[in-house]
Amino acid sequence: MAALYSGHAAGLLRYAFSLIRDANGAQDALQEVFLRYFIARRDGRSFNDPKAWLFHVMRNYSLDILKSSSVKNEVCSDGIQERSESHNDPEKQYQRSEMARDLVKLLSPRELECVRLRAEGLSYDEIAETLNLRQGTVGATLARAHKKIRQALGYAEEPKEQLLATAQEENSYSS
Description:
By secondary structure, the chain is an all-alpha fold. Helices cover 78% and strands 0% of the residues.
């Protein structure tokens, strides 16, 4: 249990915070998820992939928190001081927050969820299990999200013919 906690707690906490946007709420969610895991194990349940199960429970628990009326009306200032101390460059901090806002607007909720889980190191299989999707759907969703991000950053994909012509041109210069 200790190895599972030390291996996944940081990622689960980041994931919970990305959904809830409250440091205390994310800590509570982390404790709740591991408590539920402990109870399920005590009751004799076995898990093929504990990491995927933990992220699945974290997602559901976090979404339940967001649906509760008590959180909807709160304004959270937790972490503001910590962030200002750890990121002393306000320009970079502003750029990061703008980029994060743009990504949220750019990606669909499913795409954003898949990207968040992938950023936490989950495999396609684990993401599929966490979100109750097929692995192919996860792959297609991540590919679509990646394409949107590349286009937004100005890295639009060139047509294959143009890539081949560029490669042939470069080869003719080297010979």
